[in-house]
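ugh finaly. both done.
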Amino acid sequence: MNIVDNPEKEILEILQSQLSYEDNNSSFGVGIVDLWSDIPDWHCIALADDNVPIGACTVLNTGELYKLYASPAHRHKKVAANLVLHVISVLKAAGEDKMFIEVAKQSLPFWNKFIVFNNIKFEQVDDFKIILEI
């Protein structure tokens, strides 16, 4: 797996198509409906060994991990975790010491496991808002 910052929009659109299909065709939804934001941001994607996009995240310039998505065939294979770890390393290199996350109900199991596995300190703002100490 390779992680690339600020990929071409066409690559993000491949994942957006998967996300839209999944959101429209599942009984529980994905928790997010798109990978875009209306405020300044940057993206990173995970590419499989054959350069097929398998996950993406959107990070706001405020240090918020705004969107996180792993394609269904690549879930439980550390795609999302590797994307988050990449974002943390980029934010830390920029001098940040916290990362804000607003989680969807569907992603709570992932975040609970990620925080425990990586021994990350956090502040629970409310049921769906978390601040990670990075």
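ok and the 2nd:
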Amino acid sequence: MAQVPTKRNRVGRNLVRLPLILATVAFFSLTACFPAISQPHRYSSSPTERIKAEILDQLNAERHARGLPLLVWNPNLAGMAQNWSQHMADSGSFSHRDLSGAFKLSPFNTTLSAMGENILRGPASLRSGATTTAFMKSSGHRHNILAPGFDSVGIGVVCKGGKIYVTHNFGRATWNHASTASSAPQDPIKSSSSSGTKC
């Protein structure tokens, strides 16, 4: 059965475009350095690495089914996504990071012209396919996943305290002038709620 956003399985969306940016001191001090994270492997012994690899494949399957270009793995966005998933798991919070400050940080300030973020917190029993299905059933999150202008993604996954925390950070390269607006339809959703790895 498909997961829907509820109090126990919540999703959030955030989109920031470069011209509307205001830097914040709190964000800058929290995110001065993100370690770059290499692309996850589907056959990793780590469940969280397998979940990340499966989510990347699922996001690209949704885009491919609608004739959109595939997302490429961005190690810097992945570091930022992993950092935020860990923050939410450690603090027990569920909120978006202030993406506007990320544009002030290298390498984002020279390589990206737009960013978006999806977040999810749910029970650790959720499989990777269920997380993607939940995002796809929410118009704001689907918008980020299917935005033609987003060309890269980083995914962070943390399993802690019986919960899974997932962050997608999307980016649009400075040379890419495609819109981050999306009118792609929800259906058919390619991901299956019962497929994939769980924590």
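summary for the 2nd one i guess: Residues 76 and 130 are 25 Å apart (CA to CA).
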